[in-house]
Amino acid sequence: MRVGLLAVIPALVLGVACADAVPAYRPSVTGSATQVQLAAKTSALDWKPCADTPDDERLACARLTVPVDWADPAGDTMELAVVRRVPKDAGASKGALVYLPAGPGSSGVDTLASDGLINKMFSQAVQENFELISIDPRGTQRSSGVTCSARLAGELDTPDSAKRFDDMLAANAELGADCRNRTGPVFDHLDSTNTARDIELLRTELDEDKLSFYGLSYGTVYGQMYAELFGSRIRAMVLDANVDHSVSAEQATVSAVRAGQRSFDEFVAWCAEDKTCALRGDDVRETVAQLFDRAERGELADPDDPTRRLTENDVASAIIAPLTKPAVQETADAIARLAGRSAKPRGETGAVDGGASEPGVPETVPVPIAIYCADFAMDVPSYADYARIHARAAATAPDTRVSPHTPPWLCLNWPAETTNPQHRLDAPDAPPIVVLNSRFDASTPHEGAANVAEQLASGVLVTYEGMGHGAANRTVCVTNVLDEYYLNLAAPRDGTSCPAAKLG
Q1: Residue 19 contacts by C-beta under 8 Å, 6 or more apart in sequence?
Q2: pLDDT on residue 356
Q3: Is residue 62 within 8 Å of residue 205, measured between CB atoms?
Q4: String of b and e for 209-240 (b: at least 16 CB within 10 Å)?
Q5: 212: which of 126, 153, 313, 441 lies 20 to 30 Å off by Cα?
Q6: Cβ(264)–Cβ(400) under 8 Å?
Q7: Cα separations (Å) of 352 from 10, 157, 404?
Q8: Cβ atoms within 10 Å, residue 495
C-alpha cells in the first residue's frame, strides 16, 4: 500500500497516550547552564525588519547563533531564525511570551506574521501585554531545515508483507542518508533537548529573567524538555494539544487511531442532528466502511485524478484532517465526494497529496520527521510486530481504522540516533504549568494530556469539552482561564473544564 512520506508529513502532528513500558531516562541537566553561558559569548541579536514582511513595523527578525552540538558549545555553530512581535501597549509589557511551534516542521516566524493565527492562539489582552517571540526551531525552514530527495520521500511504502517491511527498512535508511548529506551536521543534533537549550540561550539574549510560553502540538515537547532542563526560568507555560513523550510506538499508534475514532464519533452525532450535513439521513458509518473496503481492494479512485487509486491512509486523512479544525462540514463533503455523491467540495477536502511522482514537485522537500525520529524510538523490530500493532489499532477504531498521524513505520532503520528517547517527565523546578487539551482532539488525544499533567509535579489539566486540535481561545471560558494565568499568574484548578462550542 503506497502512501509516501509526502502524504504523511502534512498530518504529522503526533498524538500519544498511556505512560507505561518505557525506559527510565532524563535529559542531562548537569552543565546545561554552563553550556548556555559558553554559547552566549558568540551569540547576539541584531533586530531588523523581517525579509518577508519588511513593512510590518510590529515585527522584527534576527539570527541567533547556537552550537550545532550542545555537548560541544565552543564548537561549530549554526543560526536560528528569530522573530519578535511588539505588544500593542509597549509600556504595559509583562515580558516575553515565546510561541513554541507545532509540527514538527512549522515556522514560528511565519506564525507570528499572521494576524489570523495570532488571534487564534492569544487573546487581545495577552497581545496587549506581552512581547511575542518565536523561532524556526533547528531543522525547520529558515533554521537549517532538514532537506531530502522528493523522489525518495515520495516512494516509501506502508508495508503489507514481510518483504515490503524489509524494503521499507532499506528505503528509510536510504532516505535518511540522503537527508543527512543534504542537511549537514545539524541532522544528528535535532532532538528537543537541543531546542530547549537554544531557547534558554535566546532567553539570555533577550535579557529576560524568566519567560512565558505557549506550546502547540509538537511544541509541547519543546516545552516539556525546557521544563525539565530550565524549569526555574519559566514564568508561565501553557502546553496545548499535548504530545505525550513517554510512550512506545505501539501505544502511540493505538492512541492516535483511537483519538481519530472518538472525533469521528462526535462528527457522526453532529451529522445525525444538523440539517446542513451533506450525509444527513445516510448510514455514515456504513458509507465510510465501504470507502475503506474499496481502498483496501485498490478500487477507490481519486475524484481529482481518476487514474490514481486511494489508500486507506488517504481515506483516513480526508475524514480526520478537517476534524482537527474542527470543520465538520468539510468532513461530510469529503465523504460524500469520495462516495461519488458530490462534485464540488465545500472546503479543501478529498485525497491526500500524491507525493513526488506528480508533476511540478521540486527535487527536494523538507522532511521534519527527522526531528521526531530524534525524540521517539519506534521499537518495531519485525513485520510480525508491525502487523500486530496495525491489527490492534484497527480493532480500537472500527470506523476510522488507521491514523494519518503516527504510522508505526516512521523512523525504523533511520540512520540518526534517537538522542532524546521517550521517558517520564521530571521537572521539579517548574512552576504551575497549564496542560490544555480538547476532549475530542483527532490528533493529540486527551489522555495524553492527562499523562503529561500527571508527570509534571506542577501540571494543571484544563479540558475543552469539544473537538479541534488546539483549544486556546475556542471559547470565552478557555480565554478567561488563560488570561488569568498569563496576566495574573493565577493558575486554574486542576481538572478545570470548559464547555464545547456548537459545531457547524
Answers
A1: 244, 246, 247, 424, 451, 454, 455
A2: 41
A3: no
A4: eebbbbbbbbbbbbbbbbbbbbbebbbbbbbb
A5: 441
A6: yes
A7: 9, 15, 10
A8: 11
Neighbours of 287 (CB within 10 A): 15
Lowest mean pLDDT across 99-113, 117-131, 297-311, 342-356: 342-356
Q: What is the pLDDT of residues 2-28, one digit of tens each?
A: 445 555 554 553 333 333 333 334 455
pLDDT band at 251 (very low <50, low <70, confident <90, very high): very high
How confident is the model at residue 438, as a pLDDT? 98
Residue range 29-44: mean pLDDT, rounded: 56
Q: Is 485 helix (H, G, I), strand (E, B) or coil?
A: helix
* 194-224 confidence digits (pLDDT tens): 999 999 999 999 999 999 999 999 999 999 9
Residue by residue, DSSP assigns 264-276 as HHHHHHHHHH-TT
SS (HEC) of 417-463: CCCCCCCCCCCCCCCCEEEEEEEECCCCCHHHHHHHHHHCCCEEEEE
Residue type present at position 52: D
Q: Three-state SS for 205?
A: helix
Q: What is the spatial distance between Cα 418 and Cα 55, in angstroms, rounded to a whole number?
A: 42
Question: pLDDT at residue 444 above 60?
Answer: yes
pLDDT by residue (tens digit) across 139-185?
999 999 999 999 998 877 778 899 999 999 999 999 999 999 999 99
Return the residue matching grid coordinates 439521513.
Answer: 281
Residue that wins the pLDDT comparison between 303 and 91: 303
| Cα distances (angstroms) measured from residue 360 to each of 16, 355, 357, 363, 365 | 35, 10, 9, 9, 12
CA 298, CA 286: separation in Å to the nearest integer? 18
The pLDDT of residue 5 is 53
Q: 153 with 367: CB under 8 angstroms?
A: yes
237 beta partners: 213, 433
Under DSSP, the state recorded for 186 is: G
Annotated domain spans of the chain: 1-19+146-182+250-421, 32-144+186-243+424-498
| Least trusted range by pLDDT, from 339-353, 356-370, 427-441, 447-461 | 339-353
Write down the H helix ranges in 274-327: 284-296, 312-320
Helix axes 312-320, 249-273, angle to 10 degrees: 60
Grid coordinates in use for 373?
525520529
Phi-psi domain of 495 (left: phi exceeds 0; alpha: psi -120 through 50; beta: other) = left
Contact of 334 with 319, CB cutoff 8 Å: yes
CA dihedral 311, 315, 317, 318 (to 10 degrees): 130
Q: Which CATH architecture has domain 32-144+186-243+424-498?
A: 3-Layer(aba) Sandwich (3.40)
What is the reported pTM?
0.91
